[in-house]
Amino acid sequence: MVEDIEEIRKRKLMELQKRLAEQQKAQEEAARQQAEVEAQIQAILRRILTPEARERLLRVKLVRPELAQQVELILVQLYQTGQIRERIDDTKLKKILAQIDARTRREFRIKW
Q1: Helices (H), 49-87
Q2: Any idea which UniProt keywords this protein has (predicted)?
């Protein structure tokens, strides 16, 4: 009886360890895939943005990460569809940022 309980405990422990190892492997794979996607995005951005524009986008990312991510995705999509024909400089990036910010910004008003 005691031996049976010990055997059950060992089996359960082994199952839990196996499940944990599988979860860790899945998380590592997801992280690796996300890193690959991010590397591809950054490679495209290096191709289409001037150094000044890339620097501005990095600064925006520090302050408003969601805005910077939206701009990055839009720029990558435009590049992939062939709609970007020349490099985007700092001035053009400012305009893009302003347009996207205006579309996504929510105003909060407090009424008394």
Answers
A1: 51-63, 65-80
A2: Coiled coil, DNA-binding
Both ends of the chain: CA-CA distance in Å? 73
Is-contact 93 57, C-beta < 8 A?
yes
Q: Which mean pLDDT values do the consecutive 10-residue runs of the chain (112 residues) have?
A: 83 94 95 94 95 96 94 94 92 93 76 72
Structural domains of the chain, ranges and CATH numbers in brackets: 2-103 (1.10.8.140)
Q: What is the pTM of this model?
A: 0.69
Q: What is the pLDDT of residue 2?
A: 66
Nearest alpha carbon to residue 57 among 31, 92, 84: 92
Residues composing the chain: 112
